[in-house]
UniProtKB/TrEMBL annotation:
Keywords for the protein's UniProt record, in alphabetical order: Metal-binding, Oxidoreductase, Signal
PANTHER family reported for this sequence: N-ACETYL-6-HYDROXYTRYPTOPHAN OXIDASE IVOB-RELATED (PTHR11474:SF125), TYROSINASE FAMILY MEMBER (PTHR11474)
Domain of life: Eukaryota
Stored InterPro entries: Di-copper_centre_dom_sf (IPR008922), Tyrosinase/Hemocyanin (IPR050316), Tyrosinase_Cu-bd (IPR002227)
Organism whose genome encodes this protein: Karstenula rhodostoma CBS 690.94
GO molecular function, one term: oxidoreductase activity
Protein name: Di-copper centre-containing protein
Keyword Oxidoreductase in record: yes
Length: 404
């Protein structure tokens, strides 16, 4: 309550917490925050959304709605992507069921490309591994992952009968105590909690595939072992891991079968004081796409992976943790809110190189760094190669969604 008053002020607190018309000096009340209207039965938890962020979110929602209808996307059929913490239990259970359903369906990826790909989740992990040095630290980060999330959402719906939309992990609400989010519940309505504590030491891992070695420091964390609660205790992973203390010549990209449990290694220091509303607000108030890319990478992207740790912290095979899709929906949401401040100038704004930090790749060592364009092709796997610009709008082409 202290935080609520600090962030929202007394006047809005009254409006937000009661349905009654405001009285006294609060003559011109703001409407109740749209995204602070909880699903019946689910009171919002965590740190409330501050006014500043809320203003950006409202402008985004208003502008996206005003742009409708757009092709087949209308105010009526637009998909509402909501925070996991605000979903009802039935939707949560159905979502988790559909993830396990994809895990039970055979992989479609050519065995010659990824001998270890077993199930449909592995198809997503294979292409994410395969593209990692192109789609991170580059101009493709945001459009590639937007398209990737959509592919996953479609597979959940079309192949496993999921009826809802892609939820996001609203980590700013839980930056001080991430495990208080319903995402990490060990019941049938969450993704399960931390892995067993193996007292892992901090280490330095190395990216394969780049002409200049890139070293990734990994904190010790508080887990490291298998997740022992929730719906994924029987999930068997196969591809990865890829980043190791050395480049593994025998299985460089983790494409060979390596059956193992889902492991997590929560690192509270990557969340506390980092994945905060303050940083989320800095991100959405970026003045240019260049600045946005810097703030999203520097203040959010890496740390949200590092917080989860274990499988989720491997930049290549991170998709092995089903929570990946919620983590990236949150990144996508921050980009969407930024785009939505000025759709005309920001929808197709791109910045960045064509490879990870512009470092030439092993297979093209002499290619100098160059800038990504919206007409470049993206490789989404299974032969799907859309242009980058197809991964950028929110209500055109394949996409019709809004973050609430
Ligand atoms: Cu990624």
């Amino acid at each position: 309550m202290v935080l609520l008053s600090t962030f929202l002020g007394t006047c809005l607190t009254v409006v937000a917490t009661t349905a009654a018309a405001p009285t006294g000096t609060c003559a011109a009340p703001k409407p109740p925050p749209y995204s602070d209207i909880p699903t019946p039965g689910h009171e919002l938890t965590g740190i409330p959304m501050p006014d500043d962020f809320h203003r950006f979110q409202r402008i985004y929602q208003k502008n996206v709605r005003a742009s409708l209808p757009s092709g087949n996307c209308t105010k009526k059929n637009i998909g509402k992507r909501r925070s996991w913490d605000e979903l009802d239990d039935a939707t949560r259970i159905d979502y988790l069921r559909a993830v396990n359903c994809l895990a039970a369906k055979p992989a479609l990826t050519d065995k010659k490309l990824a001998p270890g790909a077993v199930n449909r989740l592995d198809d997503f992990t294979y292409i994410h591994i395969n593209q990692t040095n192109i789609i991170h630290g580059s101009g493709y980060l945001l459009p590639w992952h937007r398209m990737f999330l959509w592919q996953f959402e479609e597979a959940m719906r079309n192949e496993c009968g999921y009826k809802g939309h892609l939820p996001y992990w609203d980590n700013a609400r839980f930056s001080e105590d991430p495990t208080s989010s319903a995402v990490w519940s060990g019941s049938e309505t969450g993704f399960g909690g931390n892995g067993v504590d193996l007292h892992v030491e901090p280490k330095t891992l190395v990216f394969p595939g780049l002409t200049k070695p890139f070293k990734l420091p990994m904190p010790g964390g508080t887990g490291g072992g298998c997740v022992t609660d929730g719906p994924f205790t029987n999930l068997t992973l196969s591809l990865g891991p890829v980043v190791k203390p050395f480049i593994d010549k025998n299985n460089t990209y983790g494409y060979e079968a390596n059956p193992r449990c889902l492991a997590r290694n929560f690192d509270p220091a990557s969340s506390k004081g980092v994945l905060t509303w303050a940083n989320a607000t800095i991100i959405v108030s970026s003045h240019s796409i260049g600045q946005l890319r810097g703030t999203i990478e520097g203040l959010w992207h890496k740390d949200s992976h590092t917080y989860i740790g274990g499988e989720g912290a491997d930049p290549f095979s991170t998709t092995n943790d089903p929570a990946f899709y919620l983590l990236h929906a949150q990144i996508d949401r921050l980009w969407a809110i930024w785009q939505g401040q000025d759709l005309k100038n920001r929808e197709y704004a791109i910045d960045g190189n064509r490879t990870f930090l512009g470092i030439p790749l092993d297979y093209a060592p002499d290619l100098p760094p160059s800038l990504a364009t919206i007409d470049d092709e993206m490789d989404m796997g299974l032969g799907f190669k859309p242009k980058t610009k197809e991964g950028m709008p929110m209500t055109k082409g394949n996409f019709c969604f809004i973050y609430e």
